[in-house]
Amino acid sequence: TRSLRLDGSSSGLSRDPASDGDSQKFTFACWIKRTKLGATQRIFSSAHSTADDRLAFKSDDTLEWNCQNNGTSLNVNDYTKAVFRDVSAFYHICLSVDTTQATAANRIKLYVNGVLQEMNGSNQPAQNTTFGLMGTGYVHTIGSYTSSSEYLSGYLADVYFLDGTQVAPIDNFIESTGFNSYKPKAFDMSSYSGNSFHIDAQPA
Description:
The protein is globular, with a radius of gyration of 16 Å. The protein is built from no helices and 15 strands. The mean pLDDT is 87. Strand 5 (51-57) and strand 6 (63-67) form a beta hairpin. 0% of the residues lie in helices and 39% in strands. Strands 1, 3, 8, 9, 10, 12 and 15 form a seven-stranded antiparallel β-sheet that branches.
């Protein structure tokens, strides 16, 4: 009752930001329950003629991030060693980015259920890299690729996007249940502006 259902055959949500945001620091987080495996499915995406940024399940059920910047050959792509094939429960996913970090491993972090994921490579952007993701003219989509393919099949809840900050999930978006698991935690959006948003998916 508190989730958005995407059927895997039609476009999800999309918008073209009215103004540029911070193209070096941002966080995307959501709860997601999968209903289809073995297909490329985009969770969050931004596309333009010169860039394609995405967080997606690959066809082998690993989780991929791919970030590019506008008009250059940069292609920062990596995917998890873990696979995600549980269709009975929600995963919490958090992509946390800050390319100004001096330590390369801290620039892009991908968490699932509060655990920082081990990636197949060590493909991190150069310090102070800017991505096309936050620019005007880059259509942001949830659940598809520019509203036309790679549709997500599943349920989404508590979707957050923070413009201008890198945030870890624990004690921000999720908190311990006391039973070796996590539950949603309300995040205070009052101090966030720009292209930040929260989709709680509660019924009207």
